[in-house]
Amino acid sequence: MSQIQRILVVDDEPGILQNVTKILSKAEYEVFQASSAKEALEEMAKRSYSLLISDIVMPEMNGLELLKMVKNQWPLTQVLMMTAYASTETAVKAIRLGALDYLPKPFTPDELRALVDRSVAGDLYEASVGDVEREDIDAMHLNLPLDMLSEADVGEGFCDIGKKVCNVFQKLGHTCKAGEKKGLCPQEAKKAKSEDAAPAIQELIGVDMPFNYEEVVEATGPEYVANLGRDGFAFMPYEDLKASAARMEARLNRAKLAAMYKKKESRIPGTTDALSDITDAVGIEYVKHLDRDGFSRIPFEELKGSVEKMEAKLSGKEIELALASDILVVDDEVAVNNNIRKILKKGQYTVDQATTRDEALEKVSKGFYRVIILDLKMPGVVGLELLEAVHKMQPNAKIVIITGYASIETAVETSRLGAMLYVPKPFTPAEIRTAVEKASRLAA
Asked: What is the mean pLDDT of the chain?
């Protein structure tokens, strides 16, 4: 090693500080210690460091807050995060805030040395994140998993078998004979048994996530729900479908609909957008050919002329954002894909869909999207190749990863490759809406 690298280790546990210092000193690094984030900032103000290694869960100021401040004040200092409370959420935040990597505790001396060697050798790289997105990341809030907390952290009634606070366990004098005998929480066993039983229609709503039954009925009608199968599809008899369509058509007043397109200040169906605002944004050609379904079928020559006029006003990224659709959902599970579309369409998003690797690549190559929701594990996809390809073709799109195979490693890698949010399955409608709202806001 031509030059001794100076490293600052930050941890509120003295034992960890001593062990990490001993391991790295043997590897001929110059190691300094800090027992808090505040002490670390004071140390960094005195001398420069090649690498900062910080714990995440610390009193007063946590490691993510420290990371955010360090990258703002000393952007050339590289950072590694370590924690005994590893989660995909904090892993993504750490990488998007500028950390090179994320090391769960406990780790071996070899794992630590190898990671530090790669860091100082330049083998690892920071995720490319804009200042606006980085500033938007909430470093103060840490969502710690319950099963990683001790009884002292959660109070009385914490059962080690179920890894949760249990009223029954507390009432029985902090004993659980049934659980100790089988090595399984009785409540969890009962829950698993009930899940094996044939579900009612209400339980079929959202195969992979807990949708609200009433919301689905309101959006699709009782006929749809009554004919819903276990695979997430509804096979409605023709007469029921016909009657449902007739009732829907009866709600529309065609005279009012026709008049709407003639009024300057009328509004687009299903939105709060004034027609004049749409005209200003996309041109009179779009509005002139707008149909009842909300689609505009413009003759090619008029479309070509409209695009030429737009190009005369805009260039580069502005054109891409102006032409961008809202969201592309990529998931090979049709039921999940459709459920996400239904959730987001209620938020007035325009949603496009792809269920295969090739279909996703084709759509990404031909159109622009502000947000791309991407499933990690799909047929024909090797590793993270689809994410890499999508990010390369549309670097300005905000990518939200959804996966049923969540892990710290994939959370770190996907964040490095351009994904700004990582949502493990199963997720709730509120979780997917929150993720998309955040991504859309940052894409604007």
From this structure: 77
Closest CA to 10 of 77, 108, 97: 77
Contacts of 223 (CB under 8 A, 6+ apart): 234, 236, 240, 241, 243, 244
Buried b / exposed e along 249-258 (16+ C-beta atoms within 10 A): eeeeeeeeee
In percent, the amount of the chain with pLDDT more than 90 equals: 44
pLDDT at residue 209, rounded to an integer: 43
- Say if CB 90 and CB 56 are below 8 A apart: yes
Statement: residue 421 has pLDDT above 70: yes
Q: Which helix (H) or strand (E) holds 326?
A: strand 325-330
Q: How far apart are CA 413 and CA 417, in angstroms?
A: 6
Within 8 A by CB and 6+ apart from 260, the residues are 266, 267, 269, 275
The CATH number that domain 324-443 falls under is 3.40.50.2300
* Whether CATH 3.40.50.2000 fits 6-136: no
Q: What pLDDT was estimated at residue 405?
A: 87
Task: State the pTM of this model.
Answer: 0.61
